[in-house]
Design goal:
globular
Length: 350
């Protein structure tokens, strides 16, 4: 039983989280702040009121989508560093459909989501095509496509037909029929509450089902383990490569739509990249690329972001939370070292 625990990814993730908080405590002591007081403020800022819990869910929703996007691509051995750009074009597509198409909500919302998924899928598939047909490294292409999405969004925001009337560096608000807002009794507690979280859960379950229970999922995992062996077994690695990147892009695009149709309502001109896609990498790593795990790691990251924003009230810099998260990721990344040490100790004991 003990051997099973120490060989599981969850054990090393939990250990890394503990180490992250210990490192954070040391830093807090160095700057003269009580770790107990700071962490009490962090946790009370997330769990002490229902409104705080709902805000955590709002913060977590886009991170779950981008985490799923990155986790799905990891299964095929692809490092999707382009989720940021896919997130942006997804929100842009949903915004345009939400502004210019007037339909009943029962049709308008799905159409906006489909537009976002299609935009993210196309944005990622183009990188896959460049990789398969021209041999261009996908990491470099993803980075360039992130910036293309960034500037494309800023260009569209300033088109007169899209731009908000009366000033302001933002688009018009999407129509009310395109919003994912939750019922009024929940919005009276947290105004940003929306259905995006339930959509994220549904997508996580669907991704898990695809990966674990379908032929496509088997092919994705086979290519991820060894492209050469997969091709020897009759699987077209190039086809699977593009399919993986396309689905990954669709998930990130849906994240952009959920953020826009939920708490956003409009797109503002970017001064810098928002970082949802890059934070999705962290979410995927904490979840060990497990689709359902992305729900919990997204909630954890969302709680750290929202609760961490309240630490400034007791004089704690926001950077402390970033250091904690960075430490967690660092130790997750080197978890194989822990595995090796434990394995050697077991061999020595035997």
């Amino acid at each position: 039983m003990k051997q099973k625990i120490t060989s599981s990814n969850a054990f090393y993730t939990f250990l890394s989280i503990i180490i992250g908080f210990v490192v954070g405590a040391v830093l807090l002591l160095i700057i003269g702040i009580s770790p107990a007081e700071a962490y009490a403020k962090l946790f009370s800022g997330v769990f002490s009121k229902l409104r705080y819990v709902l805000y955590d869910i709002v913060y977590a929703t886009p991170l779950i989508f981008t985490g799923l996007s990155v986790a799905f691509s990891f299964k095929t051995g692809v490092f999707n560093i382009g989720a940021e750009g896919q997130f942006v074009v997804g929100s842009l597509a949903a915004c345009l459909v939400g502004i210019f198409v007037d339909l009943p909500a029962i049709l308008h919302v799905p159409l906006c989501l489909l537009a976002a998924a299609a935009a993210g899928m196309l944005w990622s598939a183009m990188v896959g095509f460049l990789k398969v047909k021209r041999g261009i490294n996908e990491v470099l292409s993803y980075i360039m496509f992130n910036w293309l999405a960034f500037y494309l969004s800023n260009y569209v925001v300033n088109i007169p037909a899209v731009h908000k009337e009366g000033g302001g560096e933002a688009t018009k608000n999407v129509l009310d029929s395109a919003r994912l807002r939750a019922p009024q009794f929940l919005r009276s507690i947290c105004s940003d509450t929306n259905w995006g979280f339930l959509l994220a859960i549904a997508c996580a379950v669907l991704v898990w089902f695809i990966i674990k229970k379908t032929t496509l999922g088997y092919q994705l995992r086979a290519v991820g383990h060894s492209r050469t062996a997969a091709e020897y077994g009759g699987i077209s690695s190039n086809r699977i490569f593009i399919i993986s990147m396309s689905i990954s892009g669709a998930l990130a695009g849906l994240g952009g739509a959920a953020q826009l149709l939920g708490p956003g309502a409009r797109i503002s001109q970017f001064a810098g990249q928002e970082g949802f896609g890059f934070q999705g990498i962290t979410v995927a790593l904490i979840a060990s690329s497990h689709p359902v795990g992305c729900i919990f790691s997204g909630l954890f990251y969302g709680a750290m972001k929202y609760g961490g924003s309240k630490l400034t009230t007791i004089g704690v810099p926001n950077e402390v939370v970033n250091i904690i998260m960075g430490t967690i990721i660092f130790f997750i990344a080197i978890s194989h070292v822990f595995r090796h040490i434990l394995h050697k100790r077991k061999e020595a004991a035997a």
